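hey can u check if this looks right to u? its 292 residues, i copy pasted from the old doc so theres a chance i mangled smth
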Amino acid sequence: MHQTDDSCATLVATLGGQPQIVTFALDALLAQGETITDVYLVHLSLDNPRTRQALHRLQQEFLNDMYAGRRCRLRRFPIRANGVELTDIRAAADAEAAWQCIRDLIADLKRDGRRLHLCLSGGRRMMALLAMSAAALLCDHQDRIWHMHTPETTLQRVKDGAQMHVTPADGVQLIQAPLAPWGAYFPALRLLAQTPLHAVQEQLRRVAAVDDPKCRQVWERLSQRQRDVLRAFACGLRPDQAADTLSISLSTVNSHKTAILAECRNAWNIPGDEPLDYRFIREHFAVFIERV
């Protein structure tokens, strides 16, 4: 692969039978001022006629490596096991193979210096789950994960690629999903991306177990509203985003944050002169918060 300009980005999208999800996402990102030079489609076997038709419909949008008058290449990335394209993800061995394929794609793109946008609304849900797992280990703060929301009335009109582009009046929204890039926080975790999925899961459980008693200690000493703020930070929100989500003022969020971090200093025995901010909560509570 070649090194790309820092201002450029790559869209990775999971594909099923709804090709318009890809163009809707790409149109929205371009409207935000992003420069997308490549689109990678992660998909199962083209033996499925709906997937095959969806790919054909998208290829018509990228003639001569151009999209809407811009240079942009469409690239196919089938999920394979032992060199054969998977028709579905039906068993643990299929999930393992899919994990390895998606991991390899993301790892290659990150080694190439790409900024990534992952649109995971198309295709099998398992593909999205595996992609998010790999992204947590391999992606950085500059990368983004997106979900596509399409109102039901619009969905019926555009389904199966009947309409590949929409207007704001159609109500389609590209929603950013929280991403905790654990590999960026703990570089040693990126080594796990070279190991089988079941080994990654076991190692992550061990990492989480180290912090679990301290997280529990902090959690039990917080008020309900403080827990709401902690949960927002653990899910990857910034203070201003937490304020909007919880419908409270930023000053209230910061007040709760101060109280939470004070409890964290006690639990982790962190000196008072050592800087500490909301990112500490995200790093240490992201796994814990899924279990409370």
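Residues 197-220 form the longest helix (24 residues).
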